[in-house]
Amino acid sequence: MIHLKGIERFYKSGLNKTYVLKNINLEIKEGEFVTIMGPSGAGKSTLLNIIGMLEAPSGGEYLFFDEPVHKFKERRRNELHKHYMGFVFQAYHLIDELTVYENIETPLLYRKVKRAERQSMVADVLDRFNIVGKKDLFPSQLSGGQQQLVGVARAIISKPKLLLADEPTGNLHTSQGESIMGLFKELHSDGVTIVQVTHSEKNAQYGSRIINLLDGWVDSDVKL
After folding, report:
1. Strand partners, 210
2. How does pLDDT run across 158-167, given as a tens digit for each residue?
3. Read out DSSP for 90-111?
4. Which listed site, 74, 97, 128, 197, has its alpha carbon 20 to 30 Å from 134?
5. How far apart are CA 126 and CA 120, in angstroms?
């Protein structure tokens, strides 16, 4: 599914380059549940953003289902992202001007899902996350934990082949976090490929593989 060859990410300052990622070589197969770990500044979120086509690498090759993403323009990358991926952000990234219902519905509008089907899918997700009573509220009216639940609901509503999660339980109570990780486990059992960034050893154990980054390098890659 994902094949990274010699991926680099750096920023230029005059003649100097500051590397965030160096020579990343990874293969992630369809159906895997991969956890990326490492200290702050190791490049975890940058790697996730490159996999999620939200950020372009400075060098190297990225193949997604054998398609050369590194050669694509931003528009084509955005199309692949919309049709194959769901993304759970640490900072929620909900749209402030939209209600909970409208935020969750947004990916379905991008995919041009018909209205009746959209309504049914959103209703199912609202019920699954026990947030039916919040559907007409705006993000500013929700707690951090509730915003994260909406973010996860939005990420999974279009049944993505690849779910990317950046600290998905970082702002949740323990029970909410366990509920989200349990949901990820269900999705994985249903065949969804998951790549998560987390500092939590407990959350990492839900996966099938742990990649440790250190100073932008892959320090270790262990199957559980």
Report:
1. 35, 222
2. 889 999 999 9
3. TT----TTS-HHHHHHHHHHHT
4. 197
5. 10
For residue 186, give both structure tokens: 């269900």
Q: Which two tokens stand for residue 218?
A: 């892959």
Q: CA–CA separation, 70 vs 43, rounded Å?
A: 19
Q: Which CATH number fits domain 2-223: 3.40.718.10, 3.40.50.300, 3.90.220.20, 3.40.710.10?
A: 3.40.50.300
Q: Give the three-class secondary structure for 57.
A: coil
Residue 14's pLDDT is what?
A: 86
Query: 219 and 38 in contact (C-beta within 8 Å)?
Result: yes
Residue 19: band (very low, low, confident or very high) from pLDDT cuts 50, 70, 90:
very high
Structure tokens given for 63: 């193949």
Digit-coded pLDDT (tens) for 46-80: 999 999 999 999 999 999 999 999 999 988 998 89
For residue 66, what pLDDT is reported?
94
Query: So where are the chain's domains?
Result: 2-223
Q: Which two tokens stand for residue 184?
A: 């990820």
Distance (Å, rounded) from C-alpha 195 to C-alpha 167?
11
